[in-house]
Write a structure and sequence with these properties.
By secondary structure, this protein is of the alpha+beta class. The protein folds into two domains: 221 residues, FAD/NAD(P)-binding domain, CATH 3.50.50.60; 146 residues, 2-Layer Sandwich (D-Amino Acid Oxidase, Chain A, domain 2). It is globular, with a radius of gyration of 22 Å. α2 packs parallel to α6 and α3 packs across α10. β12 and β13 form a beta hairpin. The chain has ten helices and 23 strands. 44% of the residues are buried. Helices cover 31% and strands 25% of the residues. The structure holds flavin-adenine dinucleotide (FAD). The site of flavin-adenine dinucleotide has 38 residues, from α2, β16 and α10.
């Protein structure tokens, strides 16, 4: 009977039309079994929301929780984008995080972010964005020099032409938040397996039957692939290769130092933030500049020798100290090189694989910002007889 119902629903052409409970003979009920590939922040949030919704969840992580892009992320939660639809989605995620933070004590720092411009053209762009954002319900207000100085008392501002404050923004320790989400998923019955790499997707006819992993075989009804930059290789087995571009980025992490700043600081030459324990995280370039020395790193994932890390670390730390004179004692700890799971059009890719509707793809940049709302929406789509209209622009088949 379970098979008949599922076959019928599949005939309707919708993964979202799957039931969350398979009905067995004699009225017994069995939870739908959903595998999640990837223990980054996106996979962790999906696993948590699926477990809350009553699925039997198994999350597979090939190395350790948050080991991928998540631990190398600046982890600023914000809704900055010129695309109104995408901005609304990000705003919803900010709201969803506020709720999750209350429930799970995620320790997010809700201090907002400040930005300033040092030339008139940039200042005009900033004012136009502020007006547009404000109309859309994303509080991003122009502030006076006095207000800026009061919001960032320990920051050396220098001359500037305009400044903006986005008070709804937050930032987090992404490794800590991912672990808390995984703990909460486990508390609701999810199984988290690591180190465990999913190597083969197994099918019976046109239905998923499970996966083979480095820790054995698992039977599954559905699979969500949230494997970051590794998603295309695995999703190809379900007939779909999400188009990602290569997007490396470095961040310096200091040892804990005096508490100096409670918000994200985005100055024209450097951006940084400080965790509650005093560690400062920052960088001076969002993406690797196109220089001859960077050709290897711009072409594909590559290791970075320790002396190059230390060189960039000291260079960036110097810029942070210039803006934050009270941080003279801040010492370099380490530098991370991360590879963003960046879809070709920079927008999230979420939805059933066009090649097999039992396999769901979830790959995105800004995954730290989006994880809260995506976990909620994706679990809803898998567990309920529903597709969420708001996700329509982000479907895998748009390319
Ligand atoms: C320098 C930098 C700065 C960033 N700044 C921000 C920011 O300020 N705000 C923001 O919102 N976003 C930011 N991002 C982007 C954000 O970090 C990512 O979008 C997000 O971490 C993606 O999370 P994820 O869980 O999808 O992927 P990942 O964290 O990469 O997790 C994927 C996991 O899947 C595992 N995996 C892969 N294949 C398999 C397999 N076959 N079997 C088992 N496990 C597998 C990997 O080991 C990995 O742990 C930044 C990224 C970088 C690199």
């Amino acid at each position: 009977m379970a098979i008949e119902r599922r076959t019928f629903l599949k005939g309707m052409g919708s993964l979202a039309a799957a039931a969350s409970v398979n009905t067995l003979a004699f009225g017994q009920q069995q939870k739908i079994s959903v595998g999640v590939v990837g223990g980054g922040i996106v996979g962790a949030s999906i696993a948590l929301h699926l477990a809350k919704a009553g699925a039997q969840v198994t999350l597979f992580e090939k190395t350790a929780p948050a080991a991928g892009a998540t631990s190398k992320s600046f982890a600023w939660i914000n809704a900055f984008t010129s695309d109104p639809h995408y901005r609304a989605l990000r705003l919803k995620s900010i709201n969803a995080y506020q709720e999750l933070d209350r429930q799970l004590n995620l320790n997010i720092i809700w201090g907002g972010a400040i930005h300033w411009a040092i030339n008139l053209a940039e200042a005009e762009r900033m004012k136009a964005s502020a007006a547009e954002f404000d109309q859309a319900g994303y509080d991003a207000r122009m502030i006076t020099p006095e207000e800026l100085a009061a919001l960032a008392p320990n920051v050396r501002l220098g001359p500037f032409d305009a400044a903006l404050f986005s008070p709804l923004d937050g930032h987090m320790d992404p490794v800590d938040v991912t672990r808390k989400m995984l703990d909460a998923a486990r508390d609701r019955g999810a199984t988290i397996v690591h180190p465990c790499e999913v190597t083969v997707l197994r099918f019976k006819g046109d239905r998923l039957s499970g996966v083979s992993t480095t820790a054995g075989d698992y039977s599954l009804d559905r699979l969500v692939i949230a494997g970051g930059v590794d998603t295309p290789a695995l999703a190809a087995q379900a007939g779909y290769t999400p188009p990602l571009t290569h997007a490396p980025g470095i961040l310096i992490h200091t040892k804990p130092t005096t508490a100096l700043v409670g918000r994200v600081i985005e100055s024209p030459h450097i951006y940084f933030k400080q965790h509650r324990d005093g560690r400062i995280i920052g960088t001076d370039e969002a993406y690797a500049p196109d220089l001859p020395a960077h050709q290897g790193i711009l072409e594909g994932p590559q290791e970075m020798p320790e002396e190059i890390r230390a060189m960039h670390g000291e260079r960036i730390l110097g810029k942070i100290k210039d803006k934050l004179p009270g941080a003279t004692d801040a010492a370099y700890d380490h530098l991370t090189l991360g590879f963003r799971p960046m879809p070709q059009d920079r927008l999230p890719i979420v939805g059933a694989s066009p090649g097999n509707s039992d396999v769901y793809i979830a790959v995105m940049h800004s995954g730290v910002t989006l994880a809260a709302i995506m976990g909620h929406y994706i679990s809803h789509e898998i567990m309920q007889d529903d597709l969420i209209d708001e996700l329509a622009p982000y479907r895998p088949d748009r390319f």
